[in-house]
Amino acid sequence: MAKKVTVISTSIRPNSNSELLAKSFAEGAEAAGNEVAFITLKDKDIRFCRGCLSCHQTGKCIIQDDVAPIMDAVLHADVVVWATPIYYFEMSGQMKTLIDRMNPMYPMDYRFRDVYFLATAADEGEDVFEKAETGLTGWLDCFPKTTLKGSVYCGGVTGGGEISGNAKLAEARALGAQV
């Protein structure tokens, strides 16, 4: 049975390594017959959460920017995929800002059950990705019906497009095909 997959690329850099990893995952998921929505945060207006908690009363954020349609795509997806570059051993600021802005989702009914995490970094080693994964699992803890189903981490890539030809692209495509 085909699933609705929402892939969110949080890098805003042209030819981003994490976005290329996300595109590989999306290709695999699409080739397996799933419906894929690919969202990039490039050129998106995503403002910081003000902490006003109005969303707890109204179910929506008072800030008028590009977050509402992204949140809607996440709410109605079966699978959510986050892709980020790692900066200073943590997820990108854009990813964290978007996660914070998804606070109105907390009390809502949501469809997604499976979450995947893709990340790239200049540094190598599995420990490079630990804090970013912990940050994402903090968000997942607020949605108890979800599970972190898989991840692909690629270290040792710095400049835009350096991931080209890397085996991690095939790994991400294969993971996407298993959705």
TrEMBL record:
Top-rank taxon, per record: Bacteria
Pfam families in UniProt: FMN_red (PF03358)
Q: Which SUPFAM superfamilies match?
A: Flavoproteins
Return one GO MF term: oxidoreductase activity
Q: Where is the NADPH-dependent FMN reductase-like domain?
A: 4-123
InterPro entries this protein is in?
A: Flavoprotein-like_sf, FMN_Rdtase-like_dom, ISF_SsuE-like
Q: Which UniProt keywords apply?
A: Flavoprotein, FMN
According to UniProt, the name of this protein is Flavodoxin family protein
Source species: Mogibacterium kristiansenii
Q: What is the lineage of its organism?
A: Bacteria, Bacillati, Bacillota, Clostridia, Peptostreptococcales
